[in-house]
Write a structure and sequence with these properties.
Oligomer: single chain
Bound molecules: nickel (II) ion
Helix content: 10-25%
Number of helices: 2
Order of helices and strands: HEEEEEEEHE
Shape: globular
Number of strands: 8
Structural class: alpha+beta
Largest sheet: 5 strands, antiparallel
Length: 153
Protein backbone atom coordinates (compact mmCIF):
# COMPACT_ATOMS: atom_id res chain seq x y z
CA UNK A 1 0.00 0.00 0.00
CA UNK A 2 1.28 3.40 -0.96
CA UNK A 3 -0.09 6.76 -1.87
CA UNK A 4 1.37 7.99 -5.14
CA UNK A 5 1.72 11.58 -6.24
CA UNK A 6 -1.21 12.76 -8.41
CA UNK A 7 -0.14 14.55 -11.58
CA UNK A 8 -1.77 17.96 -11.81
CA UNK A 9 -2.98 20.26 -14.58
CA UNK A 10 -0.08 21.68 -16.60
CA UNK A 11 1.83 18.39 -16.84
CA UNK A 12 1.81 17.31 -20.49
CA UNK A 13 1.60 13.61 -19.53
CA UNK A 14 -2.15 14.21 -19.04
CA UNK A 15 -2.46 14.94 -22.76
CA UNK A 16 -0.62 11.84 -24.03
CA UNK A 17 -2.00 8.53 -25.26
CA UNK A 18 -1.30 5.44 -23.16
CA UNK A 19 0.16 2.13 -24.28
CA UNK A 20 -1.56 -1.19 -23.56
CA UNK A 21 -0.52 -3.31 -20.59
CA UNK A 22 1.19 -6.50 -21.73
CA UNK A 23 2.53 -8.01 -18.51
CA UNK A 24 0.07 -9.05 -15.80
CA UNK A 25 2.63 -9.39 -13.06
CA UNK A 26 3.22 -8.26 -9.51
CA UNK A 27 4.38 -4.84 -10.67
CA UNK A 28 0.91 -4.30 -12.21
CA UNK A 29 -0.85 -5.54 -9.05
CA UNK A 30 1.14 -3.13 -6.87
CA UNK A 31 0.32 -0.31 -9.29
CA UNK A 32 -3.41 -1.11 -9.16
CA UNK A 33 -3.38 -1.29 -5.36
CA UNK A 34 -1.44 1.96 -5.07
CA UNK A 35 -3.85 3.64 -7.49
CA UNK A 36 -6.85 2.51 -5.41
CA UNK A 37 -5.19 3.79 -2.22
CA UNK A 38 -4.34 7.09 -3.90
CA UNK A 39 -7.90 7.49 -5.23
CA UNK A 40 -9.44 6.78 -1.82
CA UNK A 41 -6.97 9.04 -0.02
CA UNK A 42 -7.97 11.90 -2.34
CA UNK A 43 -11.72 11.11 -2.03
CA UNK A 44 -11.98 10.48 -5.77
CA UNK A 45 -14.20 8.03 -7.66
CA UNK A 46 -11.65 7.17 -10.32
CA UNK A 47 -8.00 7.37 -11.29
CA UNK A 48 -6.14 6.59 -14.51
CA UNK A 49 -2.51 5.67 -15.27
CA UNK A 50 -1.36 9.08 -16.53
CA UNK A 51 -2.56 10.64 -13.27
CA UNK A 52 0.15 8.72 -11.42
CA UNK A 53 2.70 9.43 -14.14
CA UNK A 54 2.37 6.20 -16.13
CA UNK A 55 1.31 6.07 -19.77
CA UNK A 56 -0.35 2.68 -19.37
CA UNK A 57 -3.96 1.68 -20.01
CA UNK A 58 -4.96 1.09 -16.39
CA UNK A 59 -7.91 2.56 -14.49
CA UNK A 60 -9.43 2.17 -11.04
CA UNK A 61 -12.98 3.27 -10.24
CA UNK A 62 -14.95 3.23 -6.99
CA UNK A 63 -18.33 4.96 -6.90
CA UNK A 64 -19.10 3.45 -3.49
CA UNK A 65 -19.55 -0.22 -4.34
CA UNK A 66 -15.91 -1.27 -4.12
CA UNK A 67 -12.86 -0.92 -6.32
CA UNK A 68 -13.15 -1.85 -9.99
CA UNK A 69 -9.85 -2.49 -11.76
CA UNK A 70 -9.83 -2.08 -15.53
CA UNK A 71 -6.79 -3.01 -17.62
CA UNK A 72 -6.81 -2.18 -21.35
CA UNK A 73 -10.50 -1.14 -21.16
CA UNK A 74 -12.70 -0.21 -24.12
CA UNK A 75 -16.27 1.04 -24.27
CA UNK A 76 -18.12 -1.46 -26.47
CA UNK A 77 -21.72 -0.24 -26.04
CA UNK A 78 -23.12 3.12 -24.98
CA UNK A 79 -26.56 4.71 -24.96
CA UNK A 80 -28.57 7.58 -23.55
CA UNK A 81 -27.27 10.86 -22.26
CA UNK A 82 -26.65 12.58 -18.94
CA UNK A 83 -25.45 16.13 -18.32
CA UNK A 84 -23.87 16.95 -15.01
CA UNK A 85 -21.04 18.48 -13.02
CA UNK A 86 -17.73 16.69 -13.31
CA UNK A 87 -14.34 17.16 -11.69
CA UNK A 88 -10.95 15.45 -11.74
CA UNK A 89 -8.27 14.79 -9.13
CA UNK A 90 -5.75 16.36 -11.53
CA UNK A 91 -7.78 19.62 -11.58
CA UNK A 92 -8.49 20.27 -7.91
CA UNK A 93 -11.36 22.65 -7.25
CA UNK A 94 -12.45 22.84 -10.90
CA UNK A 95 -15.82 21.55 -12.06
CA UNK A 96 -17.56 21.69 -15.40
CA UNK A 97 -20.76 20.51 -17.05
CA UNK A 98 -20.04 17.46 -19.19
CA UNK A 99 -22.45 15.40 -21.27
CA UNK A 100 -21.83 11.65 -21.08
CA UNK A 101 -23.73 8.52 -22.09
CA UNK A 102 -26.09 7.37 -19.34
CA UNK A 103 -25.16 3.73 -19.97
CA UNK A 104 -21.93 2.10 -21.09
CA UNK A 105 -20.65 -1.43 -21.33
CA UNK A 106 -16.88 -1.75 -20.89
CA UNK A 107 -14.73 -4.67 -22.00
CA UNK A 108 -11.45 -4.93 -20.13
CA UNK A 109 -8.92 -7.31 -18.65
CA UNK A 110 -8.56 -8.00 -14.95
CA UNK A 111 -5.23 -8.00 -13.10
CA UNK A 112 -4.54 -11.54 -14.34
CA UNK A 113 -5.28 -10.76 -17.98
CA UNK A 114 -8.73 -12.37 -18.09
CA UNK A 115 -11.26 -10.50 -20.26
CA UNK A 116 -14.58 -9.43 -18.75
CA UNK A 117 -17.41 -7.03 -19.42
CA UNK A 118 -19.05 -4.64 -16.99
CA UNK A 119 -22.05 -2.35 -17.33
CA UNK A 120 -22.32 1.06 -15.76
CA UNK A 121 -25.20 3.49 -15.45
CA UNK A 122 -25.37 7.11 -14.31
CA UNK A 123 -22.36 7.94 -12.05
CA UNK A 124 -20.57 4.69 -12.89
CA UNK A 125 -21.05 5.30 -16.63
CA UNK A 126 -19.71 8.84 -16.16
CA UNK A 127 -16.70 7.57 -14.20
CA UNK A 128 -15.89 4.93 -16.83
CA UNK A 129 -16.07 7.53 -19.63
CA UNK A 130 -13.99 10.08 -17.72
CA UNK A 131 -11.25 7.61 -16.78
CA UNK A 132 -11.08 5.96 -20.20
CA UNK A 133 -10.72 9.43 -21.75
CA UNK A 134 -7.56 9.88 -19.64
CA UNK A 135 -6.02 6.87 -21.41
CA UNK A 136 -6.29 8.75 -24.70
CA UNK A 137 -4.97 12.00 -23.29
CA UNK A 138 -8.42 13.59 -23.08
CA UNK A 139 -9.24 15.64 -19.97
CA UNK A 140 -12.76 16.57 -18.86
CA UNK A 141 -12.22 20.30 -19.38
CA UNK A 142 -11.92 19.72 -23.12
CA UNK A 143 -15.41 18.13 -23.07
CA UNK A 144 -17.07 20.63 -20.72
CA UNK A 145 -19.82 22.81 -22.20
CA UNK A 146 -18.96 25.31 -19.49
CA UNK A 147 -16.98 25.46 -16.26
CA UNK A 148 -18.82 26.11 -13.01
CA UNK A 149 -18.23 29.21 -10.91
CA UNK A 150 -17.54 29.05 -7.18
CA UNK A 151 -21.18 30.02 -6.38
CA UNK A 152 -22.47 27.00 -8.31
CA UNK A 153 -20.58 24.31 -6.42
NI1 LIG B 1 -9.79 12.74 -14.14
Amino acid sequence: MAIRNIVKDGDSILLKKCRPVEKFNEKLWILLEDMADTMHDANGVGLAGPQVGLLRRVVVVDVGDGVIELVNPKIVVFSGEQDGAEGCLSFPGEYGMVKRPNYVKVRAQDRFGNFFEMEGRELLARAFCHELDHLDGVVFKSRASRMLGPDEL
